[in-house]
Fold this sequence. Notes:
Blueprint lengths: L1 H29 L1 H11 L4 H21 L56 E3 L5 E3 L11 E3 L1 H6 L3 E2 L13
Parallel strand pairs: 2-4
Antiparallel strand pairs: 1-2, 1-3
Helix pairs in contact: 1-2, 2-3
Amino acid sequence: MANGKKAAKRRRAASRKRGKKLLTVFAVVLMPPLGIWLAWKKSRFSAASCVALTAAAVVLMCAYVAVIPGTTATPKGGVEFVRRKPQAEIYGPELPEDMVAGYQAPGSVENVLSSATEEPEIHVYINDDDIYFHTANCKRRYGTSSEITPYVAYYLGYLPCEICDPPTYAPEP
């Protein structure tokens, strides 16, 4: 009975070895670097078998690289040059006959752009824990002070600082 168990154990071990060897051969075909590593490190091939599997893997890797299409391959249909002005018919209302191709303003037309410059917006600064607003160079202003306009400071209920005398907003009556 003991001999029967040993024989069964040997058969299972032999079938596991065959399975590992078969897995290694499939790995050489599908993923050559992994297959080479398995052949040399994990399976029990002879040295000549490992050399043969490595040579087969190298040939397969070369074949895989040779099958990849070149990047210089042009698609079917050739090269098509794109022009600046496409040749297309435009459907829509016709233009008036007396319209000229270009338009130039007569010399009597004055410049419509205003020469007035915008005044720079004035800002004041408020602290989170204060009831006053300050100028940029006030000693009571913190580095974390928020920048707002005097208009916003007035409507938020802040008072002007007595030390720096910032610009204030006065609503019109």
